[in-house]
Amino acid sequence: MAQRLLIIFLITFLLFISFQFIGQPLKRYVDAGELTKPVTSQILNMTDCSALDHPNMLSVNQIQGAGIQSPYVDKKVSTVGIVTLVSKPYKGFFIQSMKPDNDDLTSEGLFVSSGNDSRLYELKHGDKVFLQGKVAEYFGRTQLTDVEGVTVCGNGSALRMSNFSLPLKSALTKVSNVTEYELAMEPFEGMLISSSQLLTVSGVEKLTGYGELLVSYGRLMQSTDIVSSGSAAKHYEKANKLNQIVLDNGDPRLGYADVIINKASEIAQGLNVLKAGDTVSGINGVIHFNHNQFKIIPTEPVHWHVKPLSRVVPLNTNSHTVPNTSKSKPMLRIVSANIHNYFNGNGSLKAQYNGFPTKRGAKSLQQFHVQHQKLVAQLSMLDADIYGLIEIENDGEEEQSAQRYLVEALTAYSSTNKKPSGKGAKNYQFVSVKSINQSGLLGSDLIRVALIYDANKVETVGTATTLPSLDNQSKPINSAFSRGNRAPLIQSFKHLKSGKEFTLAVNHFKSKGGCPKSKSDPNRNLKDGQGCWNALRVKAADELAKHLQHPTYDGHGVLILGDLNAYQQEQPIMTLRQYGYQNAVDIKSSQLAAYSYIFRSRTGTLDYILLNKTAANWVNSSFYWHVNADVAKEYGYDKLTTENRLPASTHLRASDHDPVVLDLTIQ
After folding, report:
1. Three-state DSSP class for 24?
2. What is the pLDDT of residue 315?
3. How, if at all, do strands 597-599 and 602-604 pair?
4. What are the Cα distances from residue 109, in Å, to 82, 156, 170, 416?
């Protein structure tokens, strides 16, 4: 009898429980070890997350707070939000408030660290979740850690994306040890944003290595390329910093492989490769703070606008096909090119130069072959009559020297690729410096400058000279070229068709790095935008210009070529202008933007062809050929890997500097 009564009681109890929950939705309770299994033994009777009340319940914007740090650091809290992005590479997910608080100083988004619980990655975009965890500031990023439980309680409605545009507005308040950029970005941390702007790729330094690009509204320029050093440069750079954001592919382990156009024929020619200067639009994503940078991780595909790079120099800038050129006005093309430490690995003068890795250039024979192919292709496509080269191995002039090896390759290339008429083969020679030093070395550095010319077009006049000059006792004077600045190469030429004489001075001024430690050294970084060693570069410019005033060069067109390691508005360039020299691209160029180098995502000009008044009258056109600086460094010879997706034979990224081209009509 007792057993029968017990059975009837149990059946009645189970029927009662079942009727209470017929038609109610099944909710998933997730603790640290139970994400994927619904807890069927504990069915929750609720229709939204509000049923899960908690004494420490806070909204996402309350957790974030209006300052740089959360006011709840190290406290356990509970919150509710909509999942906007799940990221395995960044080991967590993002949530956002369902209703904004209309406070421009607080973020509606928050990053939740998954710790070691990989099952949290089963969460999906749009999941409405209740969770508990501890508030932390992880290297400047507000986040929830030590997550104790996550309840998925439905699917949220569509969230309103916050409008994001550049440049950012400066924050009204200042906080010590916090930049204006950080203050301006803090209200967006962790949030879902949308940008309707057409943004420009300004930096590709981390493109193939980390899948990151720096984008801005318009291209970011070096401050002293646009304005004078000092307060104007500081103000300009301040504006730059408010006009940038990293676009991240969401996986720091992978490059932006998907944004390289997958057309085999175009890749083989080095065309349609994502690069600085290209643009992007339609960005929707989440703002993340990682490695001291704010980044947008797109939540849907963006729209790339990739400009193709031509394999050939445009016809209207080719000195041999310029329209309406009279035969009585012979043309001459001069190129200045930094060739990025061209070392051929078997220099003949010093044993330590032999073999690979080289002191400055290629680390292996394979790298050198790539470098050589790229460089010969690029220089040959320019089809110049004179090349002023910077950063070539300083190993003399003998059979195994780098400059002889390059000259022979350029001549051979021109012979095998001559025009159908049979014309076009070059007779390239290099300017000897044995009149300066019988060893054939120029200066004491591992690298030097060089001049290569087509003997069919010009001939040398006299012998080469350099600086520093000598005093009466044939000893070097105290000169800007005694240290730091490489020895210049100065040579006069005669144009064979016109009979006109002109002089070229190829230079490589001291770089901005390796700052002196003394606080009283005039070459220290004065924080005025010009970097270190500015005083030494100014002295070099002054000495060079004074030397070129010597009666030897009277009546000559004088051209100063090279990598001067100074931007257009810096004092070394201004010094040369005071002596009457003009930048060739300022005289006659169809380019909207002239530049040759990108450093830390700032574009500017370090490479020049400057002309005195006589030579300026001969200018037909001048331009920078943007085939190197805009392209990611991983495509250069020195970053060659098995993952390199740009064929080694392409002419792109033969160097880190763009060549500058000048076409003269000698008359």
Report:
1. coil
2. 33
3. antiparallel
4. 9, 15, 21, 62
- What whole-number distance in Å separates Cα of residue 561 and Cα of residue 601? 25
Q: Tokens representing 662?
A: 């000048």
pLDDT (0 to 100) of residue 550: 95
Using a 10 angstrom Cβ sphere, with 0-12 exposed, 13-18 middle and 19 or more buried, the burial of residue 347 is: buried
Q: Do 83 and 182 share a domain, yes or no?
A: no
User: Of 634, 208, 624, 628, nearest to 377 (Cα)?
Assistant: 628
Cross-strand pairs, 94: 85, 111
CB 571 within 8 A of CB 538: yes
pLDDT at 418: 60
Contact residues for 577 (Cβ-Cβ < 8 A; gap 6+): none
Residue 255 domain flag: yes
DSSP 343: -
CA gap 126, 96 in Å, rounded: 10
Burial class (CB in 10 A: 0-12, 13-18, 19+), 600: exposed
- Predicted pLDDT at 487: 96
Assign residue 350 the CATH number of its domain. 3.60.10.10
Strands 245-248 and 293-298: parallel
123 and 179 both lie in a single domain: no
Q: Is 40 exposed, middle or buried (0-12, 13-18, 19+ CB in 10 A)?
A: exposed
Tell me, yes or no, whether 68 and 42 share the same domain. Answer: yes
Give SS3 for 67: coil
d(CA 598, CA 275): 12
69, 75 Cβ separation under 8 angstroms? no
**Sequence letter at residue 304:** W
Nearest to 499 by CA among 463, 462, 459, 464: 459
Residues 305 and 200: their CA atoms lie apart, in Å, by 10
Q: Residues of the chain whose pLDDT is less than 70?
A: 1-55, 157, 172, 252-272, 309-330, 347-354, 418-424, 469-477, 640-649
**Please, which residues bridge with residue 298 across strands?**
285
Is 293:140 a contact under the CB 8 Å cutoff? no
**Rounded (5°) CA angle 196-200-203:** 135
What domain range includes position 267?
A: 163-305
Q: Which residue has the tokens 């929950």?
A: 21
Number of domain units in the chain: 3
- Pick from 252, 280, 305: which residue ends a domain? 305
Q: Whole-prediction pTM value?
A: 0.87
Residues 6+ apart with CB under 8 A from 127: 82, 83, 152, 155, 156
DSSP H helices in 321-437: 365-382, 402-416
The neighbour count for residue 484, using CB atoms within 10 Å, is: 17
**What CATH number is associated with residue 124?**
2.40.50.140
Residue 606, domain member (yes or no): yes
Q: Are 381 and 387 in contact, with CB atoms under 8 Å apart?
A: no
59 and 71 Cβ atoms separated by less than 8 Å: no
CA distance 600 to 205: 8
**Domain match, 598 and 497 both:** yes
Q: What are the structure tokens assigned to 53, written together?
A: 């009340």
Integer Cα distance of 428 and 379 in angstroms: 12
Per-residue pLDDT tens digits for 347-360: 544 445 568 888 89
Please tell me whether residues 144 and 221 are part of one structural domain: no
